[in-house]
Design brief:
The chain starts with a helix and ends in a 6-residue tail after the last strand. A seven-stranded antiparallel sheet has the order 11-12-23-14-19-20-21, with helices on one face. Strands 13-22-15-16-17-18 form a six-stranded antiparallel sheet, with no helix packed on it. 36% of the residues lie in helices and 17% in strands. Among the domains are: 84 residues, Zinc/RING finger domain, C3HC4 (zinc finger) (Herpes Virus-1, 2-Layer Sandwich), CATH 3.30.40; 110 residues, no CATH class; 163 residues, Jelly Rolls (Sandwich), CATH 2.60.120.920.
């Protein structure tokens, strides 16, 4: 029997009226099975009662019987079919909370039970009277979060005053006087705002992508700068090494040649002395031999030739003087210094060319200029007019110090500008931070927010505490100012001489920096009327 039942198909469990799987199957007296609702409705519409399958007529409306065994078989078959037909839950779908093992997709959620059901486990809610009263909605996940904690009701409304979701009972108590709208209405409002938020987020993402690119570009520039610095160092140090080796070779050669000359002189003198010793030794032998003769005639005849010594040099005036090596090393070092200076000049020129690439176009800001200063129309020149003008009060303006800032400021990176100081007897040039005191008489030092080079009758000075006096090789005509904001570096250059003058290192910049100029009073030193001029950079090859 089990094998026979297992082979039955859906047709064996289908009602011949609705053609669907039996729902509450009942049997007629003739033995045919139908859904209770289907056969009841069928007979309600007929005058005579007959079987829809065999057409057997009944005199009276038959009593319908429940075949318990068949009903259980239908239930099992129907459950199996429904389970097989129902889809398994996908990642984005709501699962059935009742399923064990493989979870099926929920078709409804009960707001009373706070449980989601698949089609199979939903059946009691469709059959049992008490469960039929429960409120069923489209499947929802995390049902407990959708219910009001206070009233245990569905959160269907939105309080605009407190920006929270509320239930209907909330609007009659805690949120009674607040503006409340449906979730859908607020959803549409927030959805419109979401587009703006998304645009803002995308803009923030783009800004950060730009920041990443800027950082990568900075690293690439730093790598290029490092490679160039290494190459310059290798070039100069290799040249210096070659020069040192040449100086050493020249010094060794010079000392060896002097030593060789001394050794040759000594060798020649020794040979000459040895020859005289040999001659004198021979004479001494002849004298000894003659002293033993008793032949008076031979003695007297020979004595005449022996009485005079053999010709020799007067060695009292002869000496071997050791060579003097004094000055040889100094002359070699002088030559080395000359070569090093030539290489340093090349390095300085290359350094100036590198910083000149960071040239910025700056113009003077008349709103910051002291009342006695006169600016050119293009904002590139300034000189002392020797007359204090009546100007509108401006918080940006210097009142006690004869100074002027540029319109442009810099808060990162590197920048470079040049100022012509030709024919000036005194001047200030440098950079200043934005928050400097512009109303009182302030000494321009890094402590007060200035990084300044000053020229006056006593020479060239970097204004600090204490000040740094600098050598001035020749008359300075054009000053170059280079700032690396991130590195904390301010450097000054003599542009015409292609010479580095001074660098302030380890500076801490935390706010915008402004280039600034001060032409100094008109009558300082008798004549200081020439203007300070912001000049375009002329990058020579």
């Amino acid at each position: 029997m089990a094998r026979a039942n297992a082979s039955w198909s859906e047709e064996n469990f289908s009602c011949s009226i609705c053609l669907d799987v039996f729902n509450s199957p009942v049997s007629t007296p003739c033995g045919h099975n139908f859904c209770r609702t289907c056969i009841t409705t069928f007979w309600d519409e007929q005058v005579k009662y007959k079987c829809p399958v065999c057409n057997k007529l009944f005199d009276t409306r038959p009593d319908l019987q429940v075949n318990t065994l068949f009903t259980e078989m239908v239930e099992r078959f129907g459950t199996s079919v429904r389970v097989n037909e129902q889809p398994c839950v996908e990642p984005a779908e709501v699962p059935c909370d009742f399923c064990t093992g493989t979870q099926l997709k929920a078709v409804k959620s009960c707001l009373v039970c706070l449980i989601s059901y698949c089609q199979t486990h939903l059946e009691p809610h469709q059959r049992i009277a008490g469960l039929k009263k429960h409120r069923l909605v489209e499947p929802m996940d995390r049902l407990e979060d959708r219910m009001c904690k206070k009233h245990n009701q569905l959160l269907e409304l939105f309080c605009q005053a407190e920006q929270v979701c509320v239930c209907q009972f909330c609007t009659e108590s805690d949120h009674k006087s607040h503006p409340v709208v449906s979730l859908k209405e607020e959803y549409e409002v927030k959805m419109a705002q979401l587009g703006k938020i998304e645009a803002e987020v995308q803009q923030m993402i783009q800004e950060r992508l730009n920041n990443i690119q800027e950082i990568k570009d900075t690293v690439n520039r730093s790598k290029a700068d490092a490679d160039r610095e290494i190459a310059d160092g290798v070039h100069i140090l290799t040249a210096l090494k070659r020069c040192i080796e040449k100086c050493q070779d020249d010094l060794n050669q010079m000392v060896k040649e002097k030593l060789k000359s001394t050794e040759k002189q000594a060798e020649d003198l020794i040979k000459e002395l040895e020859q005289e010793i040999e001659d004198l030794t021979n004479r001494s032998s002849e004298v000894k031999k003659l002293s033993h003769t008793e032949d008076h005639l031979h003695f007297l005849q020979t004595f005449r030739s022996l009485k005079d010594p053999p010709p020799t040099r007067d060695w009292t005036t002869v000496e071997v003087r050791p060579p003097s090596y004094v000055g040889n090393l100094r002359r070699s070092l002088d030559q080395l210094e000359e070569t090093l200076n030539m290489e340093m000049e090349k390095l300085r020129d290359a350094e100036l060319k590198r910083v000149q690439k960071y040239e910025v176009d700056v113009t003077l800001d008349p709103d910051t200029a002291a009342p006695q200063l006169i600016l050119s129309e293009d904002g590139k020149q300034v000189h002392d007019g020797d007359v204090v003008k009546a100007l509108p009060d401006n918080p940006k303006r210097f009142t006690e110090n004869i100074r002027v800032l540029t319109r442009q400021s810099f808060s990162s990176g590197r920048f470079y500008f040049e100022v012509q100081v030709k024919d000036k007897t005194a001047w200030y040039v440098g950079v200043a931070r934005e928050s400097i005191n512009r109303k009182d008489l302030i000494i321009a030092t890094p402590e007060t927010g200035y990084w300044t080079l000053i020229y006056y009758k006593d020479g060239l000075v970097f204004n600090d505490n204490p000040s740094v006096r600098l050598p001035l090789r020749a008359e300075l005509q054009k000053l170059g100012v280079f700032v690396d904001y991130d590195e904390g570096l301010v450097s000054f250059y003599d542009v015409e001489a292609r010479v580095h003058i001074y660098s302030a290192t380890g500076c801490r910049f935390t706010e915008p920096l402004y280039p600034f100029l001060s032409p100094w009073p008109f009558d300082y030193g008798g004549n200081n009327s020439a203007p300070l001029i912001i000049s375009p950079v002329n990058q020579t090859d």
